[in-house]
Design the sequence.
């Protein structure tokens, strides 16, 4: 019988592996020496928008985001692409151009890649980054009393779903595309400048899904103020029209029993909480006495930011381990 990977390999087998399967995070981190560790990640998916260049840029920003969530800097990337035989290669070229422009903006290089034939087009990147081994940002570092800061507005899943169904306005879609193309590099640099220990990027599991990962890994609970959440223009409108992505339902099923609503938010705002994001922002947990300093560093780098909640105590550690009490509170 084959053993699960977590049983076949342990941390003691690879002591230089700072972050891996033993404690899953946004990317793997491997120590090279006392001052340098490698961050390794990959991500790819089918088109989320029709514009080929924009899709390539969004996919690249999304893949790079895992390096930034760990507090690192990207140094090079490899293209990953799947393409249909009946689609023009000029379209694939535009996707690759969009990705290359984002990687260049990150100060990194495209060093190669791999393409296969597939019925459904897909694109993404394998990204290599670097970070100081003592300054890796993980999901395990949230502490009671920390403040939660988010660096991009929510709702991209609702808007791209509305666009696929032909009901999204061009202004709403283009604004969402601009946010999805925005790199989280400035936010990562700001985190490093103040010594942030805990963060993650918000992608397919939505705000609450990724927040739950932090809560579970850190042994705390996270409380969000629903009315303070930043929302992309049009997202609430499309939620009311039931332009709901399939991933939202899966997120809600997974988080059943893990989220407590102290006050039920409006139905459209509730959808924002579970909305699967593409190339979303960073959710940062930071000590309350460091918030002003972090905000100053974010402003200096042109990185948007909103205070959205705080870290609180769990009610029962034994129940927490068994998923019997909520680790996410919405007020």
Sequence:
């Amino acid at each position: 019988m084959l053993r699960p990977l977590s049983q076949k390999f342990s941390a003691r087998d690879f002591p230089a592996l700072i972050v891996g399967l033993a404690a899953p995070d946004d990317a793997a981190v491997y120590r090279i020496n006392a001052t340098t560790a490698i961050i390794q990640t990959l991500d790819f998916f089918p088109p989320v928008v029709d514009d080929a260049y924009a899709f390539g840029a969004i996919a690249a920003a999304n893949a790079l985001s895992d390096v930034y969530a760990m507090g690192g800097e990207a140094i090079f990337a490899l293209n990953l692409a799947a393409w249909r035989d009946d689609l023009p290669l000029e379209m694939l070229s535009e996707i690759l151009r969009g990705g290359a422009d984002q990687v260049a903006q990150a100060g990194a290089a495209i060093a190669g890649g791999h393409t296969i034939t597939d019925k459904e087009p897909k694109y993404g990147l394998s990204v290599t980054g670097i970070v100081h081994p003592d300054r890796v940002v993980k999901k395990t570092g949230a502490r009671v009393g920390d403040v939660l800061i988010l660096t991009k507005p929510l709702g991209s899943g609702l808007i791209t779903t509305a666009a696929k169904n032909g009901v999204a306005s061009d202004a709403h879609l283009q604004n969402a595309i601009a946010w999805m193309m925005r790199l989280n590099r400035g936010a990562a640099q700001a985190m490093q400048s103040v010594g942030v220990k805990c963060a993650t990027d918000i992608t397919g599991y939505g705000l609450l899904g990724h927040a739950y990962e932090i809560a579970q890994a850190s042994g705390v609970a996270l409380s969000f103020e629903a009315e303070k959440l930043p929302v992309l223009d049009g997202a609430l409108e499309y939620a009311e029209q039931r332009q709901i992505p399939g991933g939202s339902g899966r997120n809600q099923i997974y988080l059943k029993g893990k989220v407590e609503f102290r006050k039920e938010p409006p139905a459209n705002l509730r959808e924002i909480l579970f909305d699967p994001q593409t190339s979303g922002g960073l959710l940062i947990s930071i000590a309350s006495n460091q918030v002003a300093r972090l905000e100053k560093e974010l402003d200096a780098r042109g990185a948007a930011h909103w205070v959205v909640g705080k870290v609180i105590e769990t009610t029962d550690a034994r129940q927490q381990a068994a998923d019997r009490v909520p680790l996410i509170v919405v007020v």
Residues 26 and 66 are 5 Å apart (CA to CA). The chain has two domains: 5-134, 138-330. The chain has a mean pLDDT of 93.
